[in-house]
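Hi R.,

Here's the chain you asked about this morning:
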Amino acid sequence: MMGYTTDKSIRGKLRVSLNKERGSEMRLRIEMQANIHNRGTSKLKNGVMTWHLFTDMDNQFVEMIDVFPPARVKERAEKNMVAIIKVPEINPGESFSPTVILRIDTTTRDWLMEPQEASQETITRNRGTYCALQKYWEIDDDIIQEMSERMAERTGDDESYTRLAYDIVRDSVKLKTLLDERRGAARAVREKEGDCDEHADLFIALLRTVKIPARRVVGHYYRGSGDPEPHAWSEVFLERKGWIPVDAALGSFGRMSENYFSRIREGLVSERPTIQLKWSGIATQPPSVEEEVKMSILTNGKT
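And here is the predicted structure, written out as tokens:
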């Protein structure tokens, strides 16, 4: 039997999400399967797996979570929801394959249609938290700094600067498909090509350079059939708009369609592994960790 437990605060949070008013939506069944394989010559003992499931986003509503084996689901930093799974002893050459099934409703939402006033305390806190130099967001890079200075001269406020940064990244970085490595903003601005990672990273770096809070979201883009596509985009904080999504790779400013599944938010750090595995002792060879994600549309509760 599949099952999970949640903190009381999370149970309340899910109920609130389910009661929000919704527009047109896509009801999804999302199945995640991990595989941890012991490639070494000794047992893996006392293992604990932290598995990122989804992050809080105003256009997605979690109806159901099933985890096997049963695990605790809790909220971590930046409203990221994770499953904490106890890993049984794994003998050499053997594997452990936990599964998560989510049922989620996603909607198309335009954040620009719902302005939000932020307190000065919130504005100051976000500027202090989400404008720092991080790996992949090289705000000290000479070319990025020069570019941001020229952009600032052409604009008069944070929103106009943000829109210009979006236009520049969208138009100047040639979109490639699923590169093998994440190159970061400094390489993207020089090589003028990259996948969704480079579009998001360069956009974030250009904003953070001028103290506009920005962060990254990792998830999937699902076209309604076939395999979901791994995807990354950005969020920017504007004083009269709040946090809004920006996807320079796919050409979307302040709006998300029901095709997006938001999984991990990254701003305090520039990368969070989907699966983090810890164990006691020294492994002769680190275990391999793989994940497969499948998505399908539910109609009347059935795929």
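One quick note: Confidence is low (pLDDT under 50) at residues 1-22.

Cheers,
M.
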